[in-house]
Amino acid sequence: MDNENNYPDFVAACRPGTVDGVCGINCRHSVSPYIPGVSNNPFEQFDSEENKKAYELSQRQRLLERRVRKTKREVVALQSAVDATEDESLKFDLQQSLDKKSYLLQKQNKAYNQFCEDNELKKLQERLKIAEWGRNEAAKARGAARRYENAK
């Protein structure tokens, strides 16, 4: 039984082993052999509405993750500025900004967790990480958010 002509050339179409090919960077595809009559049909039709909804949910999740990472970078920068400044009035203003930004980060984390829970999505904590963020920074941010909330 000759099935070679029924399918496109895998190497030409998918470029395995390259950065932008199958199994390259950020690729979630997998490769396995297909045996007619034994394997599941790889070309079965998927519900396009269900597919579209899943895609839109994943895009919204990525947006929320980007916002959390951006705010974390801003909190780290503000904390460094507060620690480095000598001028007391500037330090006070920076601390106010840090407290407000930390409170925003807390709200964003809650929104992300709630979105994932509401839509039955897996929380991808590794997508929320930034290089400069550790337990110490997280504890400082929680304290700053509490200060802001108490001052409101």
Can you offer a commentary on this structure?
This protein is 59% helix and 0% strand. By secondary structure, the chain is mainly α. It folds into two domains: 10-39, no CATH class; 49-151, no CATH class. The chain has helices spanning 10-14, 48-84, 88-118, 135-151.
Tell me briefly what this model is.
The protein is mainly alpha-helical and 152 residues long. It has four helices and no strands.
What number of domains? 2
Q: Roughly how many Å is the radius of gyration? A: 24 Å
Alpha-beta classification: mainly alpha
End-to-end Cα distance, whole Å, is: 75 Å
DSSP strand content: under 5%
Layout of secondary structure:
Layout (H helix, E strand, L loop, with lengths): L9 H5 L33 H37 L3 H31 L16 H17 L1
Helix pairs in contact: 2-3, 3-4
Which keywords apply here?
0% strand, 152 residues, 2 domains, 4 helices, mainly alpha
